[in-house]
C-alpha cells in the first residue's frame, strides 16, 4: 500500500505567476484535504474534496482552487502568486465520508515547498 | 470560529523527564481532537486522537484526555526519550462542515541525553 505522495518537492515561482501542485492519495482514500504551512506555523486548512466535489473551505481567497480526479488524485492551483504564498503545502488523504465527523484519520504527504520571489 | 491554542516552545528536557504540552480549543460543536507529530525532515504523523469528551487517546507512551469542561487536550508523557525530539501539533476537526482541521502553531521538543 503506497502512502500519500506529492509533486514537485520544491518549486520556485515569481510574483503574479500561476502554480499547480499535485497529490496522489493513499490507495482506497476518497477524501483529500490541502493545507498551507508557513514557516514556524501550524498547517492552515485550505479546502477538502470528497469524491470530486469541494466539501469544505478555509479562509483562503478564490485564487486558491482545486480539483479531485476520478482516481482520487488531486491538484491545488494558485493564481496570481504573492510573496506571502511562500510556504509548505501539504496534502492529506483519508477514507472518510462527508458525514464521518472525525472518525477517519488523515494521512499526510511530505509536502511541496513553494518559494515565491 | 473554531481554533486551537497551543503552548509555545521551544521545550528542552533531559531524557526521562516528564512532558506536558498544553492545548486548549474553541469550538461551537463537538470536535474531535488530535495530536500530530513532525519528526525532523518528515511529514506530519498522527500520534493520538479522541473523539468525545472524557476519551483518552494514547500511543507510544503519550496520552491526552479530552476535557470538555476545561476545553483542553494536554499531551503528556511520563519519561521522554531522545527519539521523541520533534514538533508536536494539537488539532481539532470541526468547523461549519465538521470536516475542517484546525492546527495549533506547534511546539518544538528537544530531549537531551
Overall 3D shape of chain B: globular
Radius of gyration of chain A: 13 Å
Number of helices of chain A: 0
Number of strands of chain B: 12
Distance separating the two termini of chain B: 41 Å
Overall geometry of chain A comes to: globular
Poorly predicted regions of chain A: none
Helix fraction of chain A, binned, reads under 10%
Distance between the termini of chain A: 37 Å
Helical content of chain B (DSSP H or I, runs of 4+): under 10%
What order do the SSEs of chain A take from the amino end to the carboxyl end, as H and E? EEEEEEEEEEE
Largest pleated sheet of chain A: 7 strands, mixed
- Whole-angstrom Rg of chain B: 14 Å
- Classify the beta-strand content of chain A into a percent band: over 45%
Topology, pairings included?
The complex is a heterodimer of chains A (117) and B (113).
Chain A: E1 5-7, E2 10-13, E3 19-24, E4 31-37, E5 44-50, E6 53-57, E7 64-68, E8 74-78, E9 87-94, E10 107-108, E11 112-116
Parallel strand pairs in A: 2-11
Antiparallel strand pairs in A: 1-3, 3-8, 4-5, 4-9, 5-6, 7-8, 9-10, 9-11
Chain B: E1 3-6, E2 11-14, E3 19-21, E4 23-26, E5 32-38, E6 44-50, E7 56-59, E8 62-65, E9 75-77, E10 86-94, E11 100-103, E12 107-112
Parallel strand pairs in B: 2-12
Antiparallel strand pairs in B: 1-4, 3-9, 5-6, 5-10, 7-8, 8-9, 10-11, 10-12
How does this model look, in words?
The complex is a heterodimer of chains A (117) and B (113). Chain A contains no helices and eleven strands. With 117 residues, chain A is mainly beta. In chain A, a hairpin with a 5-residue loop joins strand 7 and strand 8. In chain B, 0% of the residues lie in helices and 52% in strands. Chain B has strands at residues 3-6, 11-14, 19-21, 23-26, 32-38, 44-50, 56-59, 62-65, 75-77, 86-94, 100-103, 107-112. In chain B, strands 2, 5, 6, 10, 11 and 12 form a six-stranded mixed β-sheet that branches.
Amino acid at each position: 500500500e503506497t502512502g500519500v505522495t506529492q509533486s514537485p518537492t520544491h518549486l520556485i515561482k515569481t510574483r503574479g505567476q500561476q502554480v499547480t501542485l499535485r497529490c496522489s492519495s493513499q490507495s482506497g482514500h476518497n477524501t483529500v484535504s490541502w493545507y498551507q504551512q508557513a514557516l514556524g506555523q501550524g498547517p492552515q486548512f485550505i479546502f477538502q474534496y470528497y469524491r470530486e466535489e469541494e466539501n469544505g473551505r478555509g479562509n483562503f481567497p478564490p485564487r486558491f482552487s482545486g480539483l479531485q480526479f476520478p482516481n482520487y488524485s488531486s491538484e491545488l492551483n494558485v493564481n496570481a502568486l504573492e510573496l506571502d504564498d511562500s510556504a509548505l503545502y501539504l496534502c492529506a488523504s483519508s477514507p472518510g465520508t462527508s458525514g464521518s465527523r472525525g472518525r477517519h484519520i488523515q494521512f499526510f504527504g511530505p509536502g511541496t515547498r513553494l518559494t515565491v520571489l | 470560529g473554531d481554533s486551537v491554542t497551543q503552548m509555545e516552545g521551544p521545550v528542552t528536557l533531559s531524557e526521562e523527564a516528564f512532558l506536558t504540552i498544553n492545548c486548549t480549543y474553541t469550538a461551537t460543536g463537538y470536535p474531535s481532537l488530535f495530536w500530530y507529530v513532525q519528526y525532523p525532515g518528515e511529514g506530519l504523523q498522527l500520534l493520538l486522537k479522541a473523539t468525545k469528551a472524557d476519551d483518552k487517546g494514547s500511543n507510544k507512551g503519550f496520552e491526552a484526555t479530552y476535557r470538555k469542561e476545561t476545553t483542553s487536550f494536554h499531551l503528556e508523557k511520563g519519561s521522554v526519550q531522545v527519539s521523541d525530539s520533534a514538533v508536536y501539533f494539537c488539532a481539532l476537526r470541526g468547523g461549519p462542515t465538521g470536516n475542517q482541521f484546525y492546527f495549533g502553531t506547534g511546539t518544538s521538543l528537544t530531549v537531551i541525553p
